[in-house]
Specification:
By secondary structure, the chain is α/β, with parallel strands linked by helices. The protein contains eight helices and 17 strands. The strands form four sheets. The protein has a six-stranded antiparallel beta barrel with strand order 12-15-14-13-16-17. Strands 3-2-1-4-7 form a five-stranded parallel β-sheet, sandwiched between helices.
Amino acid sequence: MSKVVVGMSGGVDSSVAAYLLKKQGYEVIGVTMQIWQDKDDKIIEENGGCCGLSAVEDTARVARLLDIPYYVMNFKSEFKENVIDYFVKEYAAGRTPNPCIACNRYVKWESLLKRSMDIGADYIATGHYARIGTLSNGRYIIKNSVTDLKDQTYALYNLTQQQLSRTLMPVGDYTKEEIRKIAKEIGLDVADKPDSQDICFVPDGNYASFITEETGYKAEEGNFVDIEGNFIGRHKGIIHYTIGQRKGLGISAGEPLYVINIRSETNEVVLGKNNDTFTDTVYANHINCMAEPEILPYTKLKGKIRYNHIGAECTVTMIDNDTLKCVFDTPQRAVTPGQALVLYKDDYVFGGGIII
């Protein structure tokens, strides 16, 4: 019997994932990843964080009902180094990171997988709405879930072949409604538990305050400028802004202005009109090519530039060993450095990288 460690957050998706795998005949072990720094436990708990104290309590009840062993593993140092420190560094450099992608690759997979293998597990599993598949060339891929509404493949593009070969994702074959129905049928009291929202360690959405409180970093005021470099006004620090932003600029103008560039080296935030926020060309590095060993010249794919982007047709070429150029058939709005460019072919993730 194969042994699988299921990362359980106390939510309905990972709880049902554990149930489905046990039903399929796996020896299931439930694990909650303790990732919070001690000082934040109460704050996270009040805001319903996905791995707060209630997550442990909820998961322990689920584990008892499913009759599976359950453990809490400490990943605080890995989370701080690979997620929080990365998040703070990127914002301070004028970029807008996606910490969930970093967490998936380096904490939920790399660290959890290693510890799971150390205790004799064959696989790890999660409650993500995605599926694992293999191509005719033998490579592992992330396939879209059966429901576009909950598809989470975007945040998983950076997983390695070794990680994918040891991963199970049973929830990807179901809709959210079906998962909740299964939970109710087997008597899980988390069946109607709301989904976690936003970035888990910044539950109030105030990224700038989090960065200041976490590191003591104080954002310096600087200039708003137009595309030509002309002075428009003063900003309160680049960590307060992201590409495409319109609200909260504090600038009075005859027409709406949007953030179109953030220049950390000069501490300037460039403002422009709405049409200035569009571009058809995107560059990305830190490439993970999932479906093939490499991206061939002029590969036709579909690209997504953020989690909730519907995706658009594009042509991709590599311009060096770790940098790609993506040209969209039609211009896309608010391409944001620090976010991921995820490339799809048919119904699966081809690869991706970080927008530069």
